[in-house]
Amino acid sequence: MSSASLNVEIRRIRDLAPGIREFSLSRTDGDDFPVYSGGSHIVLSLPLGERTHRNPYSLLGDPTDRKTWRVAVRKQEDSRGGSRWLHEQAREGMRIDIAAPVNLFALNRLGRRHILVAGGIGITPILSQARELARLGADFEVHYAYRAPEYGVFVDELEALAPGRIHHYVQSRREQIEFSSLLAGRPLGTHFYICGPGGMVAASMNAGKALGWPESHLHSEQFLAPTGGEPFDVKLTASGKAFTVPSDLSLLEAIEQQGVDAPYLCRGGACGQCELEVVDASGELIHHDLYLSAEERASGKKIMPCVSRLKGGCLTLNL
Amino acid sequence: MTIAFKPDETFRGTYTYRNSPKGIRRFPFPFHQDQYMYSVNMEPHTKGPEGSVFENAFDIDEHYIAEMRDRAITLERDPGRCVSLPHMMDAEWDTLELIMESLSRDYPELFTLTKDGDRWHWVNKPLGIDQTFTFGNAATLPCPPFEYITRQTQGDFVIMDQRDNNLFADSGMITSQADWSLMFDAGMSFMEWHGPVPLAHELGVFERALKYLLMLQQGRPVRRLNWTMTINPRLDTSPETYPEWGPDRASVTPDNVGDKVHLRVELQALFRLPRSNGMLFSIRGYLASMNELATYPRWAKRLHRVLSTLPNELAEYKGLVRYKPTTLEWLSKFDDGEVLPAGTQPE
Could you say which of A160, A186, A221 is where a domain stops? Predict the structure, then answer.
């Protein structure tokens, strides 16, 4: 049940800043890409040796551009291979498979005003959202925080899109977003969107809630890279497989390596599609996802195998 | 493939609608087994067997021209059967694009679409339409894009906006509904809209369906069948016109069951829309009289068993209570008790 996939060629690679590269992709069959909605992401299938590594990246270009899709990738310090491959191995002309766009960070079209906030590489979905809002003639503003001037990689594109509505916060100049003032006194019908590091997202959500914002008007996106961890054993009841998940593979990747077709979409703990039923767990479930509720976690009956693991012992799944 | 259209048949007054033998054979009979209960019976809406109603994304059949005329009559009488909220304009264009691309690809002898950038040229031969317009500019069409294209496509349509982890019925072209009101339901959330359906809520059907649909992907539409029964081959069975058709339920006699009572099957499909992230819900209806269905005894037997075991709440909700006994009596002639293997096939 993998996603409908498209084969694309890496047409252009641009180094935007230290550790940040942009990839322009076009279809190898010569057809046009479909359009997509602002905030969408795609999943790239990267050929890492004998295994395929799948990472989600937000589409950052013009959603109506049917010839070229663009993603930007920051090299992760603790990369398990995906972003490192894109930074070290990927070359123009290479072909890879990608999955059709999915949007887990969509704009609310009833919003009267939209506040977009990006931290670092979190600018990517914000850019396509801003383009969509500009096309719709909607009322919006962008707050873009980055480490140092050279890391403000999409400043020019943003300024061209919405002159006067882009606010910059440069960490090296000790500038930072004060969410309690940014979110205060906003009229009803305002929607807030943030993509950035976990701490920044949490701070903004807390500020919004403290100010009485309804949760339905606070939108965030974070993709979690699957963190490795200790190896653990897995038994699959329906397919009758038993195997060990090594420390450098996610549970989902290990299941796929066994040739078992498991559902997935975002592979980043956000969408809920890969949810599996836990039959038995002789160790501690380590949930890393953003999807399961506190009660669901406490029940010990569900796990999102794209990012979560077991600590010690054996995990039995209904799959 | 050529379709012999029946442009003059009617869905009101004289009720001259009939299915050809080929039309009966491709009827999407919905009952796999002898009993019916709600379920999340969704499957990928992929290309089905040639000639079947599942062959194409949007099925066009011999009733196309007549159905589009009936829709025009209903809209003339009640323009409120087409509703679209202001934030749905992107989704309207998404829908127009999806339908025009599908029809011109699947029925090249009937529909053609040529694009020169945003300048589009659409030709609908059966309805005699030749339109050049600018994609994205509603002023270049004779009416808004959703109304424009759904006046040319069989079936009812709802576009749902996705927000707050929910789906809202924010646009609709509804002229052949099974007794629900678009004016009443417009803007409702998924659960509100399905509020009146009996038993299914308790089974958790809608919760699971919603969770599934929120993750529906571009290019991977899904479908399911739903059904009810209708007296006379009438498309406009809306609450707004209930006085015109409601009393017909009392007109069924042992002599006219075969002609008057129709099984009404909805082929429902759901498509993720790309630029709006909305979802198109198509409700493509098929009508077959008891006489037509009984040309395949297997179907008559199966329907007899399904109706005789149908829970009362469902019969009540579907509005069958009044004529169910007469219909059962008529169908019982065909039911010799033969064990029917699972499956919906006619023979």
Answer: A221
Does residue A226 lie in a domain region? no
The per-residue pLDDT for B273 is 97
Probe site for chain B from A2, A33, A37, A221 (most B CB atoms < 10 A) = A37
For residues A216 and A131, membership in a common domain is answered with yes
Residue type, A5: S
Other beta carbons within 10 angstroms of residue B166's beta carbon come to 16
- Cα A224 to chain centroid distance, Å, stands at 7
Shared domain for A244 and A299, answered yes or no, is yes
Domain CATH code at residue A25: 2.40.30.10
**Domain tally, chain A:** 3
- With CA atoms as reference, the chain A residue closest to B87 would be A109
Chain centre distance of CA A10: 20
Q: Nearest-CA distance from A173 to chain B in Å?
A: 37
> Is residue A142 one of the residues assigned to a domain?
yes
Domain identity same for A13 and A37: yes
Among residues A37, A66, A99, the one where a domain terminates is A99
In a domain, A307, yes or no: yes
CB distance B274–A106 less than 8 Å? Answer: no
**Closest chain A residue to the Cα of B94, Cα to Cα:** A35
Are B136 and B144 in contact by the 8 Å Cβ rule? The answer is no
Helix (H) or strand (E) holding A161: helix A155-161
Q: Is the pLDDT of residue A42 over 60?
A: yes
ipTM of the complex: 0.88
Tell whether A200 and A169 lie within a shared domain. Answer: yes
Contact residues, chain B, for A271 at CB < 8 Å: 215
pLDDT at A214: 96
pLDDT, tens digit (0-9, with 9 covering 90-100), for B74-116: 999 999 999 999 999 999 999 999 999 999 999 999 999 999 9
Same domain (yes/no): A12, A50: yes
Residue A243 lies in a domain: yes
Q: Is B224 a catalytic residue?
A: yes
Do A122 and A195 share a domain, yes or no?
Answer: yes
For chains A and B, what is the number of CB pairs under 8 angstroms?
53
Q: What single-letter DSSP state applies at residue A192?
A: E
Using a CB-CB cut-off of 8 Å, the residues of chain B touching A273 are 215
List B12, B25, B69, B224, catalytic entry: B224
How far apart CA B180 and CA B185 sit, in angstroms, is 8
Residue B183 CB burial class (10 angstroms; 0-12, 13-18, ≥19): middle
Reported as a single tens digit per residue, the pLDDT across A221-253 is 987 766 677 899 999 999 999 999 988 788 998
Question: Which residue(s) pair with A170 in the sheet?
Answer: A146
**Whether residues A93 and A50 fall in one domain:** yes
Q: A169, A171, A160, A87: which is closest to A127 by C-alpha?
A: A160
Residue span of the structural domain in which A196 resides = 113-221
A41: which DSSP letter? E
CB-based contact A4 B220, cutoff 8 Å: yes
Query: Quick check: A216 and B164 CB within 8 A?
Result: yes
Residues of B with CB under 8 A from a CB of A: 87-88, 90, 161-164, 211, 215, 217-220, 274-277
Predicted confidence (pLDDT) per residue in B109-154, tens digit: 999 999 999 999 999 999 999 999 999 999 999 999 999 999 999 9
B90: chain A residues, CB-CB within 8 Å: 109, 136
Domain boundaries, chain B: 21-332
Residue of chain A nearest B161, judged by CA positions: A109
> What would the mean pLDDT of B260-275 be, rounded to a whole number?
97
pLDDT at A272: 81
pTM: 0.90
